[in-house]
Design brief:
The structure holds 2 protein chains of 2 kinds. By secondary structure, chain A is an all-beta fold. Chain A contains no helices and 11 strands. In chain A, strands 2-3-4-9 form a 4-stranded antiparallel beta sheet, with no helix packed on it. Chain A is globular and about 40 Å long. In chain B, 47% of the residues are buried. The chains are: A mainly beta, B alpha/beta.
Chain lengths: 107, 401
């Protein structure tokens, strides 16, 4: 059975629009995104290609680009956008309440 | 479609043919038995990882099957018959081509000093395994050449417990690669790790236990590594009478002097539209990938021009260096300080146009800004110097019209 596990990540103004922040929780690492249309998204923090922290990468529109080998993903749904990134990123539900960003890390 | 080569360009082109709708055959010919694999880890993870060294395959069995690629490994191409559009292999087989991509890469330059046969060089996974097995704790390692490969191997040797001396003939390390501001930091980092870095020092000869320098002094060397640069592998193209000019000469669409033969990666030179059509040749992972992408499209009738700004990185100890564009074309430098001592040098030409960026820092701290600067180079941008110089000022707005 799916159990929600909402974790508070940061305030909405901690991440600029069209930017990304690293978030570590219980030994796991995530990347939290603030899109140009003022929505928030969350994915696994490491690139599926060679386990590089995506939060060091560049956000352009809805794409996060890995800082090492330029693997690209649509952070809204985790879709890999071509070589060298071939495996999609796992994404997590996000909600904003009272200017705080929460991510659902439930099983 | 036939590809000669077993590295990044080869793999990228095979994927590119299918991306652009090619439904016919694709054959990859490699003189190695391994499927196309990634070369950057050979000087680093393949040597330092606890796990046994292994190839990071760029096309594994599953991808070869799903792409419908025929892989012919272990029997390299020996000649190209342009008249009959056929590649001849070492095992006597012949592979006919409609269009051919040469992606043979580069090979290490050989030392010519007496005793040079003792020096190990790095090109493929077998070399990496041999070097790894030689890097046992407390061995004395002499690395000849303070370029990227030599320094990466020096760092890898230290992480395996070796005592390392780097010997560089130029007045400083990375003379061709980066400004002194950056090379001095890299030198200091190697010295902190216990490595001795000798510069401005030629070599007389190598004997059974030492590297003997031109001034007669001796460096203990159980193992000698040579990393003194690379040469494009052009023999096949030369024999086939293709035009050679610091590598296989291509046009901006990656065509050689034969319209049915293309080349990509370290083996070829090409005019670069971002830098006044100067004829360039790069030895870099992303360049190999970008060029193969262009070549694949054009081999199928496309009219694409290669205009990606060059970019590469080097990891040494906990430092990452990144270079974008052509810093050597710059006349002035603006320094952009980032957190934790990291910085990026922005290189501008006499007209104030950004032509390159070179940065250094721990981990990937410089990556995002170098990437943005690379995009600005590609846009022939003349950015506001005050923004470049302020590490807290966002670069992204400079890209927007």
């Amino acid at each position: 059975m799916y159990v929600n596990q909402w974790i508070e990540v940061c305030s909405t103004d901690d991440i600029d629009e069209e930017d990304v922040m690293r978030f570590d929780h219980k030994g796991q690492t995530f990347a939290i995104y603030h899109s140009p249309d003022n929505k928030f998204y969350a994915t696994d923090g490491l690139c599926t290609h060679e386990k590089i922290h995506l939060a060091d990468g560049l956000v352009m529109d809805n794409i996060i680009e890995c800082p090492k080998h330029n693997g690209r993903f649509d952070y809204r749904n985790g879709a890999a956008k071509g070589a060298p990134a071939c495996v999609n990123l796992k994404t997590y539900p996000v909600k904003v309440e009272a200017d705080k960003v929460f991510v659902d890390l439930g099983a | 479609m036939v590809i000669i080569g077993g590295g990044k360009a080869s793999a990228r082109a095979a994927i590119g043919f299918r991306e652009h709708g090619w439904e016919g055959s694709i054959t990859i010919v490699s003189d190695e038995t391994l499927l196309p694999y990634d070369r950057p880890p050979l000087s680093k993870a393949a040597i330092t990882d606890e796990a046994d060294p292994h190839a990071v395959l760029l096309l594994d069995e599953g991808m070869i099957a799903s792409l419908g690629v025929t892989f012919v490994g272990g029997a390299g191409a020996t000649s190209i018959d342009r008249k009959h559009k056929t590649v001849h292999l070492a095992n006597g087989d012949e592979v006919p081509y409609h269009k051919l991509l040469i992606a043979t890469g580069a090979e290490p330059r050989r030392l010519t000093t007496p005793g040079a046969e003792r020096a190990l060089m790095l090109r493929d996974l077998r070399d990496a395994v041999e070097i790894r097995n030689a890097f046992t704790p407390d061995k004395n390692i002499a690395v000849i050449g303070g370029g990227f490969i030599g320094l990466e191997l020096a760092a890898s040797a230290v992480s395996r417990g070796c005592k390392v001396t780097v010997i560089e003939a130029q007045p400083r390390i990375l003379m061709r690669g980066v400004p002194e501001d950056i090379s001095s930091i890299i030198k200091a980092r190697h010295e902190t790790a216990g490595t001795t870095v000798l510069t401005g020092t030629g070599i007389s000869h190598i004997d059974a236990t030492h590297v003997v320098l031109s001034d007669g002094s001796k460096v203990s060397a159980d193992i000698v590594i040579a990393g003194i640069g690379a040469s494009p592998r052009t023999q096949l193209a030369e024999d086939a009478k293709l035009t050679i000019d610091n590598g296989i000469a291509c046009d901006a669409g990656m065509r050689t002097s034969d319209p049915d033969i293309f080349a990509s990666g370290d083996c070829c030179s090409f005019p670069h539209p971002v830098f006044g059509d100067a004829r360039l040749r790069f030895e870099a992972w992303r360049n190999a990938s970008d060029q193969a992408e262009v070549a694949a499209e054009n081999m199928l009738g496309g009219t694409k021009t290669y205009r990606a700004v060059p970019w590469f990185w080097s990891d040494q100890h906990d430092l990452t260096l990144q270079i974008a564009g052509m810093p050597g074309l710059g006349k002035t430098i603006v320094k952009r300080l980032l957190k934790d001592g990291a910085f990026i040098l922005c290189h501008l030409d006499a007209d104030g146009r950004l032509v390159g960026a070179s940065g250094i820092g721990q981990g990937n701290v410089i990556a995002r800004d170098v990437r943005l600067l690379e995009m600005l180079v590609g846009k022939l941008s003349k950015p506001d110097l005050a923004i470049l110089a302020d590490g807290t000022a966002q670069l992204k707005p400079l890209l927007k019209p």
